[in-house]
Amino acid sequence: MTGRDRGRRLVRHAGRIIDRAAAAAEWAAALAARRVPPRAAVTALVASTVVTTTTLTLIAAAPLPGRVHRLAGDAARAMVAADPTPAHPAPTHQPPRPVAARPAASPAPGTLRQPAGEFVGWAIMDLTDGSITGENLTEVSTTASMIKAWIVADFLRLEAEAGRTPGELRMRQLEQIIRDSNNEYAEAIFQQLGAHESIERLIQICRLTDSSPYLDFWSNTQLSPRDTARMGACIADGRAAGPVWTGWLLDEMRAVRGAGDFGIRHAFPEEIRPTIAIKNGWIDRTYDGNWHVNCLAIGDTWSMGVLTRYPVHLGYQHGAEICRTLAAEHLTPLQH
Length: 336
Hints:
two-stranded antiparallel sheet, five-stranded antiparallel β-sheet, disordered N terminus, alpha+beta
């Protein structure tokens, strides 16, 4: 039997395992939706995880030739892009834990320059004349999940330019990236967009001057406060997502919920908050021992960005309060 024949047999076998993994994932989701006893749900989840891990290990280890190798890689990526959960998961009694948005892996410290040390910077851009005010306008920090607003915008604009309309499943995934800060879907979309190439388009399209991609890790993208405000303006005026999808994206950013709903718009009266589009980012970076907590908000006539770094023991709520306090000091409801 030739190496190519063995490769084809392995791909067929991997396909059967993937089918079983998908079935196990659906079973686990169904059990969770019916609120079965925790032991049964855990058993289903473990079964799904074991099968999936076995599949990916087989694919990664096999010396598959040429086209067969590409087919196996496509099968593995399909597992990441698939949505095994219901569109509206059953509510839980516990609020979502404010877990940081992490990339699939962390680059080794020192590979490239990474911002470190305590820092607070903010910028407000007047959307009527383009003027920017703030402090520490040009110093960069890592974005964490805040960059997901651009990732979704970039995907939708390119789809529209290609004459394609995303399907219902993909739109649910994009919704979860914005509203719930879903990391797995964001990673799949980011890689589909060419990873760092997407950030390079952000810099070009939104005319950023201080920012840069970091290898192929979206969470480690480096933006400055004024570039964050510029990105908000770019989303607001339609350059980011394009004319077809800008309204949809802004509505999703207004619908951010759970752990990611904090910061700038909480400086406004409760009745105004739902009209302000936001996307925040938060992660505790092990390489410098700091939280990196960032806020982006877009009103009718302004865009505001706040970037912070501070010791991890203060918790992510400390950064959320910095964002809220700066907005209360420098923005007023009249500016909305």
